[in-house]
Amino acid sequence: MMMLCGNExxxxxxxxxxxxxxxxxxxxxxMVLDGTLNILRQEYPQADILTAPTAQEALQxxxxxxxxxxxxxxxxxxxxxxxxxxxxxxxxxKTLMEHYPSLNIVVQSAHxxxxxxxxxxIDNHMGGFTVVDKSQPVKDLLAIREIRNGLQxxxxxxxxxxxxxxxxxxxxxxxxxxxxxxRTVQYYWIKIRDVLEVYPEKDKxxxxxxxxxxxxxxxxx
Length: 221
Description:
The chain is an alpha/beta fold. It has 8 helices and 5 strands.
């Protein structure tokens, strides 16, 4: 099994329900689309929710009004009348990240492993980026709510918090669980503290300070 040492992909921040938001859902499967729309309307009743069944239409809509969040299926047609394929979704994602580097993106697909082809683009993307396995209940789309109060933590950083403060694991054990080197876990801690604005203070335990701040932010129970 491959061990990863380096940066990981980002995760979208929570979108405050009180603000007027615009979402774009890109999916050509009617049943899944309806389920996604129902979830979003329940959680964000004031939001404008747009839809697109093809990659071409998605790009046109984003160009007209850059949404706060784009939810993308990987397997889709490039244009009306064409066959749905994963390459269309991958190319759409690549184009969105190149032209809209701060765009918040959720990939909702049963073929998430194909995202490995976009790993460099995902690593460099400045907006939020998360993945929802389409084989799981559609309500899991709301995993984007893991980030609260405008904080942005990558999925791997969330795992570090959970392993450390819910499973009481030390860094060596966390590295084994995540299949990364311990140096990578230490790097994650640096990034977590930067986001949480936790810095060394005399006579204070940095790990405990991080835990307190993460609980205050609602990132861990």
